[in-house]
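Protocol step 4 of 6: structure prediction from sequence.
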Amino acid sequence: MSKNQAIPAGQTGNPRSLSGLLPFLQPYRGRILAALAFLVLAAMATLAFPLALRGLVDQGMGSAAANGDRLMAMREHFLALFAVGTALGVFSAARFYSVTWLGERVTSDLRNAVYGHVLKQSPEFFETTQTGEVLSRITTDTTVVQTVVGSSFSMGLRSLVMGLGAMGMLIATNPLVMTQVLGILIFVLLPAIYFGRRVRKLSRSAQDRVADTSAIAAEVLNAVAVVQSYTQEGAESKRFDLASENAFDTARKRALVRSGLVAFIITANFAALLWGLYQGTQAVLAGKISAGHLGQTIVYVILLVSSVAVLAEVYGDVLRAAGATERLMELLASRSPVAEPASPQALPAMPGGSALRLEHVNFNYPSRPNQAALQDFSLSIRPGETIALVGPSGAGKSTVFQLLLRFYDAQSGNIRLNDVATNQLSLATLRAGIGLVPQDSVIFSTSAMENIRYGRPGASDAEVIKAAEAAFADDFIRRLPEGYATFLGERGVRLSGGQRQRISIARAMLKNPPLLLLDEATSALDAESERMVQAALEAAMQDRTTLVIAHRLATVQRADRIVVMEHGRIVDIGTHAELTARGGLYARLAALQFDLQPATETPGI
């Protein structure tokens, strides 16, 4: 999948797509060989059963010996049949465990690989890919693969071995019957291949429709409060119902074609079985073969035709797995346009924070190639300096943060951190030195302690509490039912907006980076909380470089310099007093805030 291309839908799966699973199977070659050995042994035990049955009929029941001798002979043959059954049971159980373990292990590895790969994608990937689509592939498609690797593939191999074995025994013992049965089976396979192609197309389409429902559900559930506030529950339910109905209709068509295929195969195989039985009966009546030989031939014919039936059924599962594997390989084949450097450089430390320099940066978002987000943007920042970015919405303030973190790469220009180009640093090194407090605080489904510790996973409890105290979060956390061990719920639903923001600030303080990015870090706080957190932020800004996107002038006035942006360009730079005195955009926005909204947040600064 190209880097600017959405995940394609509705493509036809091909059995060759299963080759994408080879890297996940290779680490378990020993397990695979053991499973194959058990499979062959179980098949051999099955093929030995007709031979034991023939001995029972001809040498036991059909023997002319005395009743006592015949009874002893029958006991021996029954013991032989029991031994065959026992071997079949043991080897089949070992095969089942081996292939089930293999299916679960490979599926888990595949799921982990896809998830880990998606986590490394840049935001550009998610501009064209719905989260629900990705989740569907990680869950539904891997489950389909697990079914084939852990069950269907083993059944198919077992049926293939038994079918070839039964065919070989029929050729050796009754070539005339085998020739006729084989002709019927060839007649069965040709339509099966044709219908199988249709099943393959419908299987891929059905998986895409299921992914559509997952995408809708993920989108709506993440915004359920908005949906309910606009009373759109009914409309969203109808949208989901329509997607579900489309998925059902596609699955119904697949089931209809597959059912027709199954009916045809079973009928044709039954005809082959009856024809073999008819020919064998004629041979017994003519004295050409014994009754035991007939019984052996019938069982081998049954094994052969049943193996063909199972293979046809497994083929349908393989086609489904091929479509699922293809979709998963598309995810694994996607490459983030933000690439790691071939020879990453070390990041030199600087006293008092980080030095930043942006030189003639031009950037367009991939989804808006004709609209410039930044135009000839140049800015030099000294270590320890606090810079405020202000301007109307869409001016490019948040874009600066996105480029500093290398979520995107600029089309032209350079960005240097401590005099090293950021695209020459490994992503881990670059981002380890940057702390981000976003406008929309992210709270994970875990405890307050672990949410803050996310900033530095190796931090002790005492260090976490110290960071919470610095962010004025300690008091409200201790008032929670279980204090720092309190589960905060999905997306922090148990907290207010201001509380979530203070947890986010504490997380950044615990990380203690030399470069701090504050994207309206106090936007969700009331006046009292803002004063407390503002004092904490000022303490956090000491001895580090800080970039602030702020609407409230309390933060802007304390900045060393204010960078005024409009339409992706820098239109003015100075202190609060200098910019106010000069007039211009900043002075107009400041006057608007003071005159109309003296105590609230003003859109635009």
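Step 5 (inspection) to follow. The chain is about 60% helix and 10% strand.
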